[in-house]
Write a structure and sequence with these properties.
Radius of gyration: 17 Å
Number of strands: 11
CATH class of the largest domain: Alpha Beta
Helix content: 25-40%
Number of helices: 4
Order of helices and strands: EEEHEHEEEEHEEHE
CATH topology of the largest domain: Nucleotidyltransferase, domain 5
CATH superfamily of the largest domain: ATPase, nucleotide binding domain
Length: 204
C-alpha cells in the first residue's frame, strides 16, 4: 500500500511517498504556511508523478500539529482534495511524533505566554501535549532527562539547550504505514492546545 504524507505544521514543510514495502519513492521539502502554499502544490504534483505506473495511493497521511494553524489547514485541504480524486483514505498523525526517532521532549510556543510540552517515545505521545507557563515548562524540561526539540524559537528561559527539528513527512509516512500514532481518520481537524481565540466586536 503506497502512503503519501503531507507535513506543513512548521516553517519547513515536506512531502513523502512510501511504497508498500517501505521503499522511499519521493521525499522533498517545501515552504509551509499561507504564503508558501503554492510550493506545496508543486511538490505534491511531483510526488504523484513518482507513483509507479499501474499502482495507486493506499492512504494519505497528514501532520495535524500542534503548530501553524494555517499550515495544518492547508495540508488537510490538499489531502482532502486528493482523497476525493483518488479514493484514498485519510489518516491524521500528530506532527510532534515525527521530529525524531527514539525518545524526546517536543516543545512549542502556544502564544499568550504559554508553551506546549510533550514527551514522545518511538512515535507515540506518552505525555501531553500539555499547556504550561514558562516556569512550569522549565520545571518539566529540567526533569525530563531526554533530548529537547522544537520547530521554532522558544522564548522562555530553559535549563537545557533546545535543538531545532522540523517534523518529517517521511517519518509520518512510515508511522502511518505501520498503523502507528494515528490520531484521526476521515474527517481531519488540527490538534488544538486550546480553544481558538475569537475577538468579539466592540459594542457601539
Amino acid at each position: 500500500m503506497i502512503t503519501l504524507a503531507i507535513e506543513t505544521s512548521s516553517h519547513q514543510g515536506s512531502v513523502a511517498l512510501l511504497s508498500g514495502g517501505g521503499r522511499l519513492l519521493f521525499d522533498a521539502s517545501c515552504g509551509a504556511g499561507r504564503s508558501h502554499s503554492s510550493q506545496l502544490f508543486g511538490v505534491l504534483e511531483e510526488a504523484l508523478r513518482a507513483v509507479p505506473e499501474g499502482e495507486r495511493l493506499g492512504q494519505i497521511a497528514v501532520g495535524l500539529g500542534p503548530g501553524s494553524y494555517a499550515g495544518v489547514r492547508i495540508a488537510i485541504s490538499a489531502a482532502t482534495g486528493l482523497a476525493i480524486a483518488t479514493d484514498a483514505p485519510l489518516v491524521g498523525v500528530p506532527s510532534i511524533v515525527a521530529l525524531e526517532e527514539g525518545e524526546y521532549a517536543a516543545l512549542g510556543d502556544a502564544r499568550r505566554e504559554t508553551f506546549s510540552f510533550a514527551r514522545v517515545r518511538d512515535g507515540e505521545c506518552v505525555e501531553g501535549p500539555l499547556l504550561l507557563n514558562a516556569a512550569e515548562l522549565a520545571e518539566k524540561v529540567a526533569a525530563c532527562g531526554v533530548p529537547v526539540f522544537a520547530s521554532e524559537e522558544i522564548a522562555a528561559p530553559l535549563p537545557v539547550p533546545v535543538q531545532l527539528r522540523y517534523p518529517s513527512a517521511q517519518r509520518l509516512a512510515r508511522l502511518a504505514a505501520e498503523g502507528r500514532a494515528i490520531a484521526a481518520r476521515g474527517n481531519l481537524e488540527p490538534l488544538y492546545l486550546r480553544e481558538p481565540h475569537i475577538t468579539q466586536p466592540k459594542k457601539a
